[in-house]
Amino acid sequence: MPTPPDHDAADDLFALCYGELHRLAEHHLRRGGRSLTLGPTTLLHEAYLNIARREQLAFADRPRFLAYASRAMRGLVIDFARSRRAIKRGGQFEITLLPDEPPSPEAMQNATELERLGDAIDELNAIEPGLAELVDLHFFCGFTFGEIAELRGVAERTVYRDWRKARVLLHHALLPDDAQ
Fold first, then answer.
1. Shortest CA distance to 74 belongs to which of 45, 34, 115?
2. Which of 16, 85, 137, 167 is deepest in the core (most CB within 10 A)?
3. For the chain, what percent of residues have pLDDT higher than 90?
């Protein structure tokens, strides 16, 4: 019989990191464009519910927890943008956080770009999980190359080299199919 997750420890960790997590949520929403009507507190709490449902989660340190929470938020933002686009096309998803007004053309474009970025990062994760984690830590969590190098126990130059490789792979994944 598996041991139940320690919800008190998870709650304590979330409370301890709440300010940083809220800034991460704001960061994700800014990257999503002005058209996203989801609020940072709502995004943060949805991510918490998503993470709290998972069993047997353990994080070696705070940066890895923040990277995991960041990936959860990124997924929620992409799902939210997709659902807005689907409703615009006549889809019948029912999202409780969805406002009544239809999405604007700008929102549709942002949703498409977010979806493509999410898919590209998922492809990168399948090929090179370490590079995908680097993108999450630097691009989404805002860690510096020096902080990531310290976390990984490598030279900052190695992290920078990996960052360039990740950017090339993401750029290639984001090219239109006819340009590849």
1. 115
2. 137
3. 14
Structure tokens at 73: 């938020």
H helix runs in 33-155, sequence order: 40-52, 62-88, 105-127, 129-135, 145-152
Q: Treating both helix axes as pointing N-terminal to C-terminal, what angle do 62-88 and 18-32 enclose, rounded to 10 degrees?
A: 40
pLDDT in tens, 66-100: 888 888 888 888 777 777 665 555 444 444 444 55
Q: Which amino acid is at 4?
A: P
Asked if residues 58 and 12 have their Cβ atoms less than 8 Å apart, the reply is no
3-state secondary structure of 78: helix
Q: State which amino acid sits at residue 153.
A: G
Q: Is 52 exposed, middle or buried (0-12, 13-18, 19+ CB in 10 A)?
A: middle
What is the end-to-end Cα distance of the chain in Å, rounded?
50
**Whether this model's pTM surpasses 0.90:** no
What are 106's two structure tokens? 């700008």
Structural contact between residues 37 and 99, judged by C-beta atoms closer than 8 angstroms: yes
Mean pLDDT of 93-113: 55
- Longest C-alpha distance within the chain, in Å? 52
